[in-house]
Amino acid sequence: MAVGDVLSQSEIDALLSAISTGQMDADELKKEDNQRKVRVYDFKRALRFSKDHMRSLSRIHENFSRLLTTYFSAQLRTYVNISVMSVDQLPYEEFISSIPKMTILNIFDVAPLEGRIMLEVNPNIAYTMLDRVLGGRGASYNKIDSLTEIETKIMKQLFERCVDSLQESWSSVIDIDPSFSGFEVNPQFLQIVSPNETVVVISLSTQVGDTTGMINICIPHVVLEPILPNLSVKHWMQTVKKERNEEEVQLLANRVKNTEVVLSAQLGESTISIQDFLHLQMGDVITLEKDVSKPLTICVGDQPKYVGQPGKVNKKLAVQIIDSFRGGERIDE
């Protein structure tokens, strides 16, 4: 019985029966249970990412898959659904062996991080997208080994624009500046890391119209190593408070104080017909709908802020502020 196996009810009954009849000794079972447990570890398949890291990568690429869904839906004008199916870590050589011999491989640089990441698109999905871009219904053709120059150019442009979605999905962890750096159809000709290097493979289940397939994102350990602390739950949950810089606060205050705004006092309002407006002449008087004894509304920009009363200062017209504008209504008393 291996460690961690779950016994069925019949197996439990048989075990209890064997102990009661003396066929098995309980003391021997205890001794066996107390022996040191040994777990087999494959050094060729080094696990360099914790479960915490894997969960964080899953969250990042769930956001990435939603952004890709929106992007491809707009580009292809058809039903597109992309979601994260799995997140695994394995040697790069094993990943290359698991994908088709002829497929669509897009390479991206992710400055300021070192190294490159790979976006592998299943041929069925890639050709469905190509057919939609060229005005077709979205038929899939498995002829990836005979890409024409026009098909190659279209596919490059289609996947090159994914960098915006990639940048936005990673913005909560690090500000990256991704750029499209390569396009290949044969994985054997593409060696972004050594065969034994551990990589994270995020598999995205993709549906374009009636066609389904996979999009795999391969991220080497060397790319993620500098930011592994940022992929922990502690980093995601904590709120970092930025210390106030007194110089910045003072600079902002000075700029606010020196900001120029338009201050206007409204003497009143009146409503006239278009015909009366067209016949206005010099000397005509327009009666305002406001009593001369009522305070004026003073606006800062387009927003009423104060009420005041008109007057003169040194033979110049002026307005004295007597109160604040309250309750979003004019004060007429």
Structure summary:
With 333 residues, the protein is an alpha+beta fold. 33% of the residues lie in helices and 25% in strands.
Structurally, the number of domains stands at 3
Order of helices and strands: HHHEHEEHHHEEEHHHEHEEE
CATH superfamily of the largest domain: CheC-like
- Terminus-to-terminus distance: 91 Å
Keywords: Bacterial flagellum, Cell membrane, Cell projection, Chemotaxis, Cilium, Flagellar rotation, Flagellum, Membrane
Domain Flagellar motor switch protein FliN-like C-terminal: 255-323
Family: Belongs to the FliM family.
Protein name: Flagellar motor switch protein FliM
List the helices and strands and how they pair.
Layout: H1 9-21, H2 26-34, H3 51-76, E1 80-91, H4 92-98, E2 104-111, E3 116-121, H5 123-133, H6 149-160, H7 163-169, E4 177-184, E5 198-208, E6 211-220, H8 221-224, H9 233-237, H10 246-257, E7 263-266, H11 274-278, E8 296-300, E9 303-313, E10 316-324
Antiparallel strand pairs: 1-5, 2-3, 2-4, 3-6, 5-6, 7-8, 8-9, 9-10
Helix pairs in contact: 3-7
Main location: other
Keywords: Bacterial flagellum, Cell membrane, Cell projection, Chemotaxis, Cilium, Flagellar rotation, Flagellum, Membrane
Pfam families: FliM, FliMN_C
